[in-house]
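Handout, tutorial session.
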Amino acid sequence: MTTNTQIERLYFIGDIHGQQEKLAQLLECINFEPHQPATNHQLVFIGDLIDNAPGFSGNHIALLNQVKTLTDQKQAHCILGNHEFNAVGWALKKADGSFLRPHTKNNYLQHQAFLTAVGEDSLEHQQWINWFKQLPLFLDFTTVRAIHACWDNDAINAIQPYLNKDNSLKEAHWHNAFDKQHELYALCETLLKGPEQTMPVGQFFVDKTGKKRTQQRIEWWHDYHLQKNAKPVLIGHYTLNGYPAKKSQSVVCVDYNAAKGDNPLVAYEVCLSAESAINFGDECNFHYINKASYANAI
């Protein structure tokens, strides 16, 4: 799906993880007025609206309701993040009664804050799962694109038969997306979680949940410009630190770990009628709260 309905300016907003107050502060920072009639300035949520550490101080319900209202009113777009994807897998059962995403202790800890907020197996829980299933995996605004973790042309082309016209996953294929023996599993892993490679024997790292991992992420953005028709692309997912900056001339990440503490919620502004829509502009295109946190990095 290509989206370019007389939109002049887009604000791509990074992973929020239930931090509704940070979203309110960011919208004030960019002078965006929620609940107004649709304008030619729109928001693009890059996914991972949900999940956080147990006991965090955010508000999942308020955040989800605000984002859905903005999308319903045509003030915003929202794409699927790996946490919304995992939420669907947590809720859906296989034919044998087990769940698409295993209900392990580690998976539960990642998802607990959202489940507590909505009430697991409640009507509200099911309503949000149904909404997550309707979210597109990526968006193309003619001159700029958005996807949660990785734009890979081969994966984008291969996944087309499994998608609706709006780039959401067809209802019949959600089970395939969690089946490691099905090609759709690897495609979703690449697009929503990013490509990985196996670390040398004996090497590993411990992730933020305390899990030991032997797979490390590939920094695919360095070679992205070599892909055919490599339009500029906005991503989230990578939990960056430090002063917001481009990953490459054609790739910008807007996930700066807003899930935690005073870390900023970041947005990147793109003017579709300007050169910045062809090659990303400099760091002045970033908008974020808590700018004082970066005084020493400038």
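The second record follows below. Compare its token runs with those of the first.
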Amino acid sequence: MNRTTNFKLVQSLGDEHIGHEARAVAADHLDVKVWLRLLACSTQIEQQIRQRLRTRFGTTLPRFDYLAQLDRHAAGLRMNVLSRYLMVTGGNVTSLTDQLVAEGLVQRTDDPEDRRSYLVQLTDKGRQDFALMAAEHEQWLTELFKGLPVADKDTLYGLLGELRVHLAKRQTEIETEAAEHQLTRNIRKGTRK
């Protein structure tokens, strides 16, 4: 991003909205600039959704995401699976589950395939409450992207999909390299004794 482009972006957005991209300077590598722009866009959308969920429904984005996962899996989910889907610790899921059970939005049932596990499912009240939130959530996103041409949204969606696949491949490569380095360190430690 050259100084002129950065200045125009700050002028368009204003200092209060530039966010993460304010960190970028002309000398930064393009990969850093792309990452900061993605982060800034994601943060900006997330802040607006969080504010609307709090104002309209008195709830939080993590609670909304939790209910959304259960809505997609009507038969219920094991707590450990729910934890992976939400990318949070088991303790966070347990605490949130306790709250939502107390409010009558979810229920725990014994897992017929594993006596040590529970399945968590939406109650009828939970399904109704979530349906209302989900409908408004979709409207909010539609409002946020209003004015951006459909072709641009399609292109952006496709490019972000390619990025996800690329990052997943890189993650696998990084994990393999890390395991190889760990093995080499363990071998070296073993030969030093």
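Points raised in discussion: The mean pLDDT is 87.
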